[in-house]
From TrEMBL:
Record has Isomerase as a keyword: no
Protein name: Nucleolar protein 56
Any single Pfam family the record assigns to this protein: Nop
Molecular function GO labels: snoRNA binding
Classification via PROSITE patterns: NOP (PS51358)
Coiled coil: 327-366
Family note: Belongs to the NOP5/NOP56 family.
GO cellular component: box C/D methylation guide snoRNP complex; small-subunit processome
């Protein structure tokens, strides 16, 4: 601990500041000596952790709130609008040589390209194709008018090759139009994630144009309301400043519905009010932790009330009362969103836990299988030795049994060769004599000699 010996007041603020700087510099230089047990490694780790936490808090980077995708998608949407318009006009001009009456009946480019692909050669169009025409046009009267116009058309004949090229080009235009619809849905979902209040107030497309023109949502939030009002009309502004004429009243926010609904004398006033609310909404979206569309809806209600006030004279609500209601609703919505996020996080943790448990169980099964295989390998040689011993004994017994079987087969063959009477005698001898297995061969030989003697005697008597 540091004990103060004396206290002397500073003469001026400059001397106090110099003293504080000198003290902080001395602490920084002699920090390792002042704190005991502090190593270089622990100090570097602490510095690194402090730097990471500071930068994380400073940046607050969130993947779902990146506005670069909005800038690119709105630019692509504008380019697609130009290209689709150019290509569909080319299809109209190309197919108009064959069927010019279709241009007057159908005004939409996407519908015209679909009809050109479906009809093909107008001379082949019949009542069978009426259902397909109604599906595309969504009007039975228009479909019937197209059918009648094809019968009395003034267009020229077309070759099959030209028709194939027109159909392929029409299919390309149709695919581009369908892709544009998907891109618009993507932009709507992205704006609801990044800038929900701004999109609820002024619309997704106009809000995306403002973000794209400003460069980012942060830059738009830093702009004052007067800059937001004329954003997109810089050329007219500088021209007016150069010629000392009237400055423009609105820029990109002119495409919103509020300015179009306002009277001519109130357009400038409503554009100024709308720019003010857009600046507030962009700041809320940029710096709020949990983005919600509550503030955007309340700001939109305020603009509607101000528009009604300019037309009818009904006084609108005060801004303070509206913001109090918005804060209460926003806290409730934020709590609900946090609760849902916590539920998702819990479910994610449970799934991760189950996955880890399954992996651990699989590893245990593998270990048990390895142990059993090792035990079988250890016990295997002993069992093999026993089996070998049994096999040798069986092999020793096998030749003796084979010899007995061969002798029995020979006896059966001899019995078949002798007459029936001799077989009877042999049966008697076999019943009288029941010898043991080792004496079988000698007795059989004796029986054979007696039979041979009897045969010799019979042959002599016959002679």
């Amino acid at each position: 601990m540091v004990r103060l010996v004396a206290f002397s007041p500073f003469k001026s603020a400059q001397s106090a500041l110099e003293n504080i700087n000198a003290v902080s510099e001395g602490i920084r230089l002699h920090f390792h000596n002042l704190i005991k047990g502090l190593t270089v490694q622990s100090a570097s780790k602490a510095q690194l952790g402090l730097g990471h936490s500071y930068s994380r808090a400073k940046v607050k980077f969130n993947v779902n709130r990146v506005d670069n995708m909005i800038i690119q998608s709105i630019s692509l949407l504008d380019q697609l609008d130009k290209d689709i318009n150019t290509f569909s006009m080319r299809v109209r001009e190309w197919y108009g040589y064959h069927f010019p009456e279709l241009i007057k009946i159908v005004s939409d480019n996407y519908t015209y390209c679909r009809l050109a692909k479906l009809i093909g050669n107008r001379k082949e169009l019949s009542e069978e194709n009426l259902e397909g025409l109604e599906e595309i046009v969504m009007d039975s009267a228009k479909a019937q008018a197209i059918l009648e116009a094809s019968r009395s058309s003034m267009g020229m004949d077309i070759s099959p090759i030209d028709l194939i090229n027109i159909e392929s080009f029409s299919s390309r235009v149709i695919s581009l139009s369908e892709y544009r619809k998907g891109l618009q849905e993507y932009l709507r979902s992205k704006m609801s994630q990044v800038a929900p209040s701004l999109s609820a107030l002024i619309g997704e497309v106009v809000g995306a144009r403002l973000i794209s023109h400003a460069g980012s949502l942060t830059n738009l939030a830093k702009y004052p309301a007067s800059t937001v009002q004329i954003l997109g009309a810089e050329k007219a502004l500088f021209r007016a400043l150069k010629t000392r004429g009237n400055t423009p009243k609105y820029g990109l926010i002119f495409h919103s519905t509020f300015i179009g609904r306002a009277a001519a004398k109130n357009k400038g006033r409503i554009s100024r009010y709308l720019a003010n609310k857009c600046a507030i909404a962009s700041r809320i979206d940029c710096f709020s932790e949990v983005p919600t569309c509550v503030f955007g809806e309340k700001l939109r209600e305020q603009v509607e009330e101000r528009l009604a006030f300019y037309e009818t004279g009904d006084p609108p609500r005060k801004n303070l009362d509206v913001m109090k209601e918005a804060v209460v609703e926003a806290t409730q919505v934020a709590a609900e969103i946090k609760r849902k996020l916590e539920k998702k996080e819990k479910k994610k943790r449970k799934r991760e836990k189950k996955r880890l448990e399954a992996l651990a169980a699989a590893e245990e099964m593998e270990d048990s299988l390895l142990e059993t295989t090792v035990e079988e390998n250890e016990v295997g040689p002993k069992k093999k030795k026993k089996r070998k011993h049994q096999e040798t004994e069986e092999e020793e017994l096998a030749p003796a049994e084979n010899g007995l079987e061969e002798e029995e087969e020979e006896e059966e063959e001899e019995k078949e060769a002798l007459p029936k009477k001799k077989k009877k005698k042999k049966k008697k001898l076999a019943t009288e004599e029941t010898p043991q297995p080792p004496a079988k061969r000698t007795k059989k030989k004796k029986a054979r000699t007696e039979e041979e003697e009897e045969e010799l005697a019979e042959s002599q008597e016959e002679a």
